[in-house]
Amino acid sequence: MKWISRHRPSPALVVASLALFVSLSGVSYGVATGFIDSRDIKNNEVRSLDIRNNEIRTGDLRNNQVRGIDIRNSTVQGRDVGLNTLTGNDVAEDTLGKVPSAAAADTATSAGSAASVDSLKLIPRTTMTEGQPPVTLATHGPLTFTAACEPGAAGATDAGLSVGTTEDNSAAGAVPGNIEPDLDAADAPFEIAGLTDPAAGTRAAAVTDAFASAPSGKAFTGEVAIYSDAAGAGSCIFHGHLVLQG
């Protein structure tokens, strides 16, 4: 009995052995029971290869924590952005390239310069009394576009459009109307279109496509409405538009 008591472990040895056993078996116990938490993992020790592919989800990320430095450059594509969610404030304007079809706009000082068109000339409603001197509706270079209102036969009223020029070998005409392919400076203004009301006290109206050009490159085309009214003292009305070229 004395030999047995002499080899019995001391209380201190029992406590130390028990503590060692617990410390060595703690991790294994946690793995077996599924209760490993952040306290069981050393900081900065979990690596990408420790995470199964496609296992981290939105619920695993704290809101507003993924930043630009967390995303590889040039990996976000159009399919990653919601439709119609980007606005002008999201784009650096100085990085945008020029739209190819807009490049020609750099050399256009105004819309009128496109396709050699200088301007659009509107002919306002112009009323003339019968017998009044001709009225100039438009001028362009050597070309002059005039309107006249004259007495017609049997009390009717004649409304007319004419073109004069100061440059030889000009041309003028109207459809419907008259065409003069060789109009010179010495010639009287050529009547390109005319309208006569059928009889005294009646009215007539028509639309004509007018045109004229000079060798220097000045030209115009346009559409003009003509009214002839023999009622009362007789009157004529003109209005329309011309495109001045050259």
Low-pLDDT residue intervals, each spanning 5 or more residues: 110-117
Give me the strand/helix succession: HHEEEEEEEEEE
The span between the termini is 134 Å
Proportion of strand residues: 35-45%
**Fraction of residues in helices?**
10-25%
Structural class: mainly beta
Radius of gyration: 48 Å
Count of β-strands? 10
Largest sheet: 6 strands, antiparallel
Strand order of the largest sheet: 1-10-9-8-5-6
Question: How would you characterize the overall build of this protein?
Answer:
The radius of gyration is 48 Å and the shape is rod-shaped. The longest helix is centred in the first third of the chain and has 23 residues. With 246 residues, the protein is mostly beta strands. The protein has two domains: 58 residues, no CATH class; 131 residues, no CATH class. Strands 1-10-9-8-5-6 form a six-stranded antiparallel β-sheet, with no helix packed on it. It has a four-stranded antiparallel β-sheet with strand order 2-3-4-7, with no helix packed on it. The protein has two helices and ten strands. A hairpin with a 5-residue loop joins β8 and β9.
